[in-house]
Design a protein that fits this description.
Bound molecules: calcium ion
Protein name: Cadherin domain-containing protein
Structural class: mainly beta
Main location: membrane
CATH topology of the largest domain: Immunoglobulin-like
GO molecular function, one term: calcium ion binding
CATH architecture of the largest domain: Sandwich
Domain Cadherin: 13-98, 99-203
Helix content: under 10%
Membrane topology: Single-pass type I membrane protein
Distance between the termini: 73 Å
Order of helices and strands: EEEEEEEEEEEEHEEEEEEEE
CATH superfamily of the largest domain: Cadherins
Length: 276
Amino acid sequence: YYIYGSTASSCRSVDLDVAHNTIQTYKLNPTDHFKLNVVSRPDGTKYIEMVLHTSLDREKQEEHKLTLTAFDGGNPQKSGSVKINVVVLDANDNAPVFSQAVYRVTVSENASRGTVILTVSATDNDKGANEEIMYSFSQHTDSASSLFNMDPRTGEMTVIGLLDYEKAKHYEIDIEATDKGGLTDTSKVLIEVTDLNDNAPVISIISLSNPIPEDSAPDTVIAMLNIKDLDSGKNGQVKCLISETGLFLASLKPLGPIFVFGVSVLLLLTHYSQSS
Ligand SMILES: [Ca+2]
Ligand SMILES: [Ca+2]
Ligand SMILES: [Ca+2]
Ligand SMILES: [Ca+2]
């Protein structure tokens, strides 16, 4: 018998004797999920129904082995029995469950396309199509979906665009696991992009006095320079120095983020570090 939900099945047994030697009682074993109903027809014949009386859970027990025994009223008492094997079909009563509520991952900027950064996974206690899971980004995901791809079958997340630490340092992506019956679970992927030294320092002149009078006093400011490096940490720290050729009269002093290029009696090399 294959049972799905609360279907009942009925059985009929026949005893060829008459009067008190005919079938008197029926017994079912075990009775935790099924019981017997004896139904009398108007013509006096009887039949029994095997009825479900507590709900079945395939995830707990997929098969129920029952024995139905019929006893007659004779002396000695005779009995006949039949084995009933009930197989419980699966219903989609479990949603997928992600292994983590939040996945955190770091990836280097400029990571090549196709780089696998993470594999998410969800499990589903059902069977067959009811446990088959598809992974996807949730609907309201912005630009991240043009940079990352989710393999719907394996849950593997790969880089498909150009990650630029200087443009975006992290992404938050909502993901979904959906079984074939439409039940879902959601989770979150937090992606942190790490910096690479992919930017050179850029020098820009803020102001410049040129030519300069010969009687300029020492420490007269000739030029103000701004030096920028878009990278972070050590990658963004700059060291500034004047090449020694022909600049024996110049000095360089840091002034906040600005360098002052001035006249000096001695060649003075200074450096300045900035971190963005
Ligand atoms: Ca199920
Ligand atoms: Ca399911
Ligand atoms: Ca970059
Ligand atoms: Ca960088």
